Amino acid sequence: MKRIHFLLAGFGVGIALASAGVPAQTKEIVVGTSVALTGKYARTGQEQLNGFQLWVEDVNRRGGLLGRKVRLAYYDDESKPDTGAKLYEKLITGDKVDLLIGPYSSGVTLAASTVAEKHRFPIISAGASSSKIWARGYKNVFGLYTPATTYMDQILALAKEKGLKRVALIHADTAFPRDVARGVEASAKRLGLELVFKEEYGKASTDFAAMILKIKALKPDVVVGGSYLPDSTAFMRQAREYQLYAKIFAFAVGPGLPDFGPNLGAIAEGVMGNSQWEPTLNLPGVKTFAKQYEQRYGHVPGYHAAGGYGAGQVLEAAVKMTRSFDRDKLRRALLKLDTTTAFGRYKVDATGMQLGKPGYTVQWIGGSRHVILPPSVAARKTTYPFKPWDKR
Amino acid sequence: MHLLEPVLLLQFLVSGLLAGALYALLACGLNLVFGVMRVINLAHAELMLAGAFLTYVLYAWAGIHPLLAFFLVLPALFGAGFYLQRLVVERVVGKGELQSLLLTYGLSIILINTGLLIFASDFKAIPELQGALIVGDIAISKPRTAAALLAIALTLGVYHFLKHARLGKAIRAVAEHPDVAMLCGIDVVRMRMFTFGLAAAMAGAAGVMLTMIYSFSPETGADFILKCFAIIIIGGMGNFIGALYGGLLLGVAEIFVAGFVSSQWAEAVAYVLLILILLIRPTGLKGAADVT
Fold first, then answer.
1. Which residues in chain A have Cβ-Cβ distances shorter than 8 Å to B139?
2. Which domains are assigned to chain A?
3. Which chain A residues have a beta carbon less than 8 Å from that of B214?
4. Residue A125: beta bridge partners?
5. How many CB pairs under 8 A join A and B?
6. Distance between CA B204 and CA B17 in Å, rounded?
7. Nearest CA to CA, how far is B158 from chain A (Å)?
8. What is the topology classification, in CATH, of domain B2-280?
9. Which residues, given as ranges, of chain A have pLDDT below 50?
10. What are A163-179's pLDDT values in tens digits?
11. Nearest to A171, CA basis, from A137, A116, A208
12. What pTM was estimated for this model as a whole?
């Protein structure tokens, strides 16, 4: 095997210690991870790291894991899958960490989990939702995020409940939006909704005029997008220009991010989206975590931060359950475990994919984002139907 | 389907021309720099984003409408381009294409990462100038119309400037033969600074309009620059006005392909056109390497 860590020293990545404190009586437990501190996921990566670190502080205050102090070993994966893969190799073979937490993004997780699988080392994925990760027959990857294929389920169920029929589906041509689209197709079929339009577009598409004109001619009740932020905002802007109307507009990623509203102004009003987690969720532990995080870091945590903290809690629960750090025992425990963290419920299927945690549906109401579904945790009532363009 | 209705076809044409005008604005500046100094500026889209972020900052902090910010962003980008040429780009003029590619690639990496440091990778946009004018049954997007008018005014303005103004003629002389131009008493370095400033200002203008059309982050440049390369080859490498034709052609072709085939295929249009042009008319629509 290559001595990759020598190479990495050249990249100038430095190891950092989590909070110092009282010296541990026994050997400390090292939790290894890579985080996106630079590159395109830099901001989300930093939030995730804050979440990890907050958990490490908390678990040490509670007496550590099985009485041993916990330390976090992390490196910057530059938001790149190949760097992530090298770093996990180093964490496992070089640093000989005791426990592993996954990186941020489906791309880096796909690469990193292959390394963990090779070493038969269980890894808690704290920042990935592409179902492809769990479709490879791996036995060591345990997800926290709601899988992308179920993102639109609540919204389609709402459409069904309102007696809507015609669904138009658009999606970008990369892994995650395709997952969302596959989920929409399956759920529409299950609910008896008619998929009247389906089209894929390139990730660099900046103009949706043709697509919108075609959809408009079909008069759909629901427009659903497997999208990111720039495409969903461009689509809604042009939907307004061409007066495309539907009773429900829903997009993956875009409306779930804080920039969606400010970028679109009044156009954002009523658009629905998905969220993995919100600080206002009506679930045990959520508000305590959100408050503690805000005090510590000076901003309201996003779902990346909560995912980081929740990943730590899942590890903690699995270690408690097995009373050991043995990888085989942990793997079995992680498959059986059913627990609730600050991120929500954790319960995986036989492949390690998250099944227990529902997604949350958000809607832009009055210029801000509110959880509207499921009703048990909703902060606001759904605004329905979408307000026609000429009445705005 | 009822895609062949005249109204819809006309709508496609209008929307395509509007989309194409924005491409053209960006591509013309790229082509100008190539025409005058044989430098392929890989950082051109980042100059556009510099204009976009400057517009965004003026809007967010001082509440200045993008259409007004335009009058501040344009001179700022002109100045930035002017001195960028003096300090950096001038060093690779006449040194072969590889050096200019390396330099401008480096420049684009620096600009992207500076943007990421300041603005992170969040997407910004400005919610102004929304909606469309409805003329008959045709919807004419307000922000894209503003962008198209600006693109055409700027492109034709710069074209006439190059053709008729004294300074413009000097720039053409530098493009045609730098040594002879120098012998005639033209300050070639200054002309190239002026050229790069002009190109940066045009990129900046595209950036101003982009804020009201698309959500952008420091990494958005990649979505635009590849198409721009295709456009200048389609229009004619170094042929300033060729980029206008190339941009409009691409805009229209993309929307018709998206309408009749699929949006995914629209992505390929630029490159299919590129291959067709190279096969049929390798110098591009308007012929290569002529600044006018």
1. 241-243
2. 4-146+282-346 (3.40.50.2300), 150-275+360-391 (3.40.50.2300)
3. 206, 230, 233-234
4. A143
5. 131
6. 20
7. 26
8. ABC transporter involved in vitamin B12 uptake, BtuC (1.10.3470)
9. 1-24
10. 999 999 999 988 889 99
11. A208
12. 0.86
